[in-house]
Write a structure and sequence with these properties.
heterodimer; A: GROEL, domain 1; GROEL, domain 2; GroEL; 7-stranded mixed beta sheet; 3-stranded antiparallel beta sheet; globular; B: GROEL, domain 1; 18% strand; ATP binding (chain B); nucleotide-binding (chain B); CCT-beta (chain B)
Chain lengths: 535, 527
């Protein structure tokens, strides 16, 4: 590492503990970064598409996750390299923003980096490459709008939505019953969607899973399920027309925040305190009863005595319900969360048509179903499956499908999948490249090549000849001037994605291209990596 | 330039063929491990725990074996997980599910070696699983309407399940026990109501089902040993010192006499509580928590039987059996529901005294007392009986029944084979492989019994070529026999769960092409 010396020959310390740090500069740094980015992309490449493979990830604690969701793979991979971390971020932001296409975005970024490497070798300055990519991405995004199609759906006609969700689900392990799950997802989204404002709050959809049963037993519940049972084994297991008191205060004597001591020094005081305590429990339960509640849901635990009093007064209760669930219950039943017994009023009670306890399997597994709520704007998707990993993976897949459905409700433009959009963009970018004078032209052309890598990976994963297939599809697109030709992953026999009903959301695709370009730009701009060396 | 490493130091990554190999090897190793326990002549395993005392378990229950293994291989973990779920969901078939999944993977490995893409294999397996399930559905027998026949079905299922366990010597006895116990549940799957008490001593044959309820506790000193027409209060309350629960309360006194006063007040409080309890008009009091000497004495004075420290399950069950409710406050005696039973008495089993509640209101609960020569035998007997109870309770809900002894596998294999012949394309190989994996189960059963599996299975296949054949492996005589005549049956629900979860697990493992293992979490240094 270069050091500067003053006139007496002492080195200037520029970086703290300079000699303990490793430093990569210039073209070296860029190449190292690109190599790291490519390595990450290569891991995800095989997971792309309906015939993509899964990965087993073993966490530091030895737990096993099996998934092909890009965001999850990267999240669990626990990477150490800084550039790799950028790609993890990239996939995560795609996940937050769109929810789907998390694998595609990384593969795309990897391809862009690969192309950039070649250009760097030609001696093109990284900033010029970055600018070229930026222009190309603009062209591609505009072209996507150009080839996108609007389609109509309503609460009554959900078929198009189901079709889109099926495309998303077909790349997951759940594709065995993708139709079923897609319908569930769409119905769930429609149930909570605000079609007027075109907004969907996905927090209103709770995804619960329980091992056992078949994937086909997965169901949509118009209501909430809570993984809890009644606090007393002899409370009624089924309540109709329940009026629910939702409490965040424990059925316990008060615990003031200020420090205090109650001193007992005479027998009388001892007696009064005892009576007070009894009265306290009695009051609490009576209060709930007085406002007309028929079910108490509490965030905290109950004292044994309170529990029995509740039982005695025929007031079923559920304890230790988590905060998030409590909120959902409050939303679903139209009740208010009450922090103090004194504030309990009849108006604050939630309503539900049916509350029942259901038990599963041979063990003592019980769940509470709260159905027919006053406000049906909260639904639960209840997943069953053969093992824990399957459930987790199904949860992730359902999440993706939900996001896709939501995106469609927000913006009903779609592009066709199967790599057709990428190929079409690639053609458009390629054609536009010639119009740009200067070095950027090369970068734009490289961008077009990078776009091809997604369909190429699709073809590869489907066991087709990647180069042959891609070039055939590409020429077909140009010849027929039809942007709907894609890779026939499922061996259906036609390349026309419109006939195969494979489509993706426009915003998802746009976001993929934009995010990938952004990250690649960022990586290209780095020319100095300073890291503390290993100790 | 070398590719930068992107993982943390100790993390490892295995790709493609190697990853697949690792998962195949792991899964097949697990399968081979439990394979020998399959079937009526399956062998047991000794499991020694690494914990304190190096406790030893002898079992042939697949789920128990796998649960106790410390496995690092991710694919093996998947198999262990399905076995656990099978145990939770239907209770039996925990070994079969692992063996079938393992066999499916073994077949898949061969196919992958011949360059067939895993996705093709998966789609073939799926078709085959669907077809196999339909084949089973066509051949199920449902005797729901005919109660007598259904009872005999249950009996047969119980005997089949038990025949592979340590109880096989007395399977008729235990099958009868299990069927009786489950029939008392009247369709509920809540096995909580069936209590199993293990008492070493005697022989397994001395085990019995008791219609009442047995609590493994002693009656307090000086209290009646026998109560007729008992009124029982089941409680969960502190009977040691009733603490004041108001936060921050503490006692501060300045003289000894005051201490005595407070103590007196405390005693008074307890006395009042006991009085209140007595005011319920009871003659038996069962508490979940401890009862101290003082209140116990008070109860004895009032001629009330007080039982302390019944565990939580015991309390719940007792409440269920006697129809009383679990009480924690005693201010309004009129609204507390008391439990009733005809007779409470102390009985002796072996050397131990137990409390026996008989003539209880709700007939749902019952107690099975297991006797046996050692703890290991008893533990294993409990597991076996638990399996049988689970299967029976599931069968009561889903009354469809199949024959056993490798019969369902052969039926499925035949249908799947036919499907393979009809299916064009590479999938056909996978479907064929599925049928081979199915046939592997009767093969293993025969192997474990020391029979000539190759000969028997081919005979079986020939026999199944005829429509509506009931042939299966008769392990006792070592030949192909009529399963319907031999009375070997299995529950449809169990078989279906085995088939579906095994396929699902195999599919899951097949789809993997990369294993990324994170660096193990470092133990915090406590220096």
């Amino acid at each position: 590492m270069a050091l500067a010396f003053d006139e007496y020959g002492r080195p200037f310390i520029i970086l703290k503990e300079q000699d303990q740090k490793t430093r990569l500069r210039g073209i070296e740094a860029q190449k190292a970064n690109i190599a790291a980015g490519k390595a990450v992309a290569r891991i995800l490449r095989t997971s792309l598409g309906p015939k993509g493979m899964d990965k087993i990830l073993q966490s530091p604690d030895g737990d096993v996750t099996i998934t092909n969701d890009g965001a999850t793979i990267l999240e669990q991979m626990d990477v150490d390299n800084q550039i790799a971390k950028l790609l993890v971020e990239l996939s995560r932001s795609q996940d937050y923003e769109i929810g789907d296409g998390t694998t595609g975005v990384v593969v795309m970024a990897g391809a862009l980096l690969e192309q950039a490497e070649r250009l760097l070798e030609c001696g093109i300055h990284p900033i010029r490459i970055a600018e070229g990519y930026e222009m190309a991405s603009k062209i591609a995004v505009e072209h996507l709008v150009h080839i996108s199609q609007k389609f109509d759906f309503g609460a009554a006609n959900i078929e198009p939505l189901v079709q889109t969700c099926m495309t998303t689900l077909s790349s997951k392990i759940v594709n065995r019953c993708k139709r079923h799950l897609a319908e569930i997802s769409v119905k769930a989204v429609i149930a909570v969607a605000d079609l007027e404002r075109k907004d969907v709050n996905l927090d209103m959809i709770k995804v619960e899973g329980k091992v056992g049963g078949k994937l086909e037993d997965t169901e949509l519940i118009y209501g909430i399920t809570v993984d809890k049972d009644m606090s007393h084994p002899q409370m009624p297991k089924q309540i109709e027309d329940a009026k629910i008191a939702i409490l965040t205060c424990p059925f316990e004597p008060p615990k003031p925040k200020t420090k205090h001591k109650v001193e007992i020094d005479t027998v009388e005081k001892f007696q009064t305190l005892r009576l007070q305590e009894q009265k306290y429990f009695d009051d609490m339960v009576q209060k709930c009863k007085d406002v007309g509640a028929t079910l108490v849901i509490c965030q905290w635990g109950f004292d044994d005595e309170a529990n029995h009093l509740l039982m005695n007064r025929n007031l079923p209760a559920v304890r230790w319900v988590g905060g998030v669930e409590l909120e959902l219950i409050a939303i679903a039943t139209g009740g208010r969360i009450v922090p103090r017994f004194q504030e309990l009023t009849p108006e604050k009670l939630g309503r539900a048509g049916m509350v029942r306890e259901k038990s599963f399997g041979t063990t003592k597994d019980k769940m509470l179903y709260i159905e027919h709520c006053a406000n049906s704007r909260a639904v639960t998707i209840f997943i069953r499956g053969g093992n824990k990993m399957m459930i987790e993976e199904t949860k992730r897949s359902i999440h993706d499908a939900l996001c896709v459905a939501r995106n469609l409700i927000r913006n009903n433009a779609i592009v066709y999948g199967g790599g057709s959009a990428e190929i079409s963009c690639s053609i458009a970018v390629e054609a536009a490249a010639d119009k740009y004078p200067g070095v950027e032209q090369y970068a734009i052309r490289a961008f077009a090549d990078a776009l091809d890598s997604v369909p190429m990976a699709l073809a590869e994963n489907s066991g087709l000849q990647p180069i042959e297939t891609l070039s055939a599809v590409k020429s077909q697109q140009i010849k027929d001037n039809n942007p709907h030709y894609g890779i026939d992953c499922n061996d259906v026999g036609t390349n026309d994605m419109r006939q195969q009903d494979v489509f993706e959301t426009l915003i998802g695709k746009q976001q993929q291209i934009l995010l990938a370009t952004q990250v690649v730009k960022m990586i290209l701009k780095i020319d100095d990596v300073i890291s503390p060396s290993e100790y | 330039m070398a590719i930068e490493k992107i993982f943390k130091d100790d993390a490892s990554e295995e790709k493609g063929e190697r990853a697949r190999m690792a998962s195949f090897v792991g899964a097949i190793a697990i399968t081979d491990l439990v394979k020998t326990t399959l079937g009526p002549k399956g062998m047991d395993k000794i499991l020694q725990s690494t914990g304190r005392g190096h406790g030893v378990t002898v079992t042939n229950d697949g789920a128990t074996i796998l649960k106790s293994l410390h496995i690092d291989n991710p694919a093996a973990k998947v198999l262990i997980d399905i076995s656990k779920v099978q145990d939770d969901e239907v209770g039996d078939g925990t070994t079969s599910v692992v063996v079938l999944a393992g066999e499916l993977l073994r077949e898949a490995e061969k196919l992958v070696a011949t360059k067939i893409h895993p996705m093709t294999i998966i789609s073939g397996y799926r078709m085959a699983a669907e077809c196999a399930r339909n084949a089973l559905l066509q051949r199920v027998v449902d005797n729901k309407e005919n109660a007598e026949k259904f009872m005999s079905d249950l009996m047969k299922i119980a005997m089949t399940t038990l025949s592979s366990k340590i109880l096989s010597q007395d399977k008729v006895h235990f099958a009868q026990l299990a069927v009786d116990a489950v029939m008392r549940l009247k369709g509920s799957t809540n096995l909580e109501a069936i209590q199993i008490i293990k008492k070493p001593g005697g022989s397994l044959r001395d085990s019995f089902l008791d219609e009442g309820f047995i609590l493994d506790k002693k009656i307090g000193l000086g209290q009646p040993k026998r109560i007729e027409n008992a009124k029982i209060l089941v409680a969960n309350t502190a009977m040691d010192t009733d603490k004041v629960k108001i936060y921050g309360a503490r006692v501060r006194v300045d003289s000894m006499s005051k201490v005595a006063e407070i103590e007196g007040a405390e005693k008074e409080k307890m006395r009042e509580k006991v009085q209140k309890i007595i005011a319920h008009g009871i003659n038996c009091f069962v508490n979940r928590q401890l009862i101290y000497n003082f209140p116990e004495e008070l109860f004895a004075d009032a001629g009330i039987l007080a039982i302390e420290h019944a565990d939580f399950d015991g309390i719940e069950r007792l409440a269920l059996v006697t129809g009383g409710e679990i009480a924690s406050t005693f201010d309004n005696p009129e609204s507390v529901k008391l439990g009733h039973c005809k007779l409470i008495e102390e009985i002796m089993i072996g050397e131990d005294k137990l409390i026996h509640f008989s003539g209880v209101e709700m007939g749902q609960a019952c107690t099975i007392v297991l006797r046996g020569s050692s703890h290991h035998v008893l533990d294993e007997a409990e597991r076996s009986l638990h399996d049988a109870l689970c299967v029976l309770s599931q069968t009561v809900n889903d009354t469809r029944v199949l024959l056993g002894g490798g019969w369902p596998e052969m039926v499925m294999a035949k249908e799947v084979d036919e499907l393979a012949r009809k299916t064009p394309g590479k999938k056909s190989h996978a479907i064929e492989a599925f049928s081979r994996a199915l046939v592997a189960i009767p093969t293993i059963i025969a192997d474990n019994a020391g029979l000539d599996s190759a000969d028997l299975v081919t005979q079986l296949r020939a026999a199944h070529h005829k429509e509506g054949c009931n042939a299966g492996i008769d392990v006792i005589s070592g030949s192909v026999g009529d399963m319907a005549e031999l009375g070997i049956s299995e529950s449809f629900k169990v078989k279906q769960a085995v088939l579906l979860s095994a396929t699902e697990a195999a599919e899951m493992i097949l789809r993997v092409d990369e294993i990324i293992t994170c660096a193990p979490r470092k133990r915090e240094d406590r220096m």
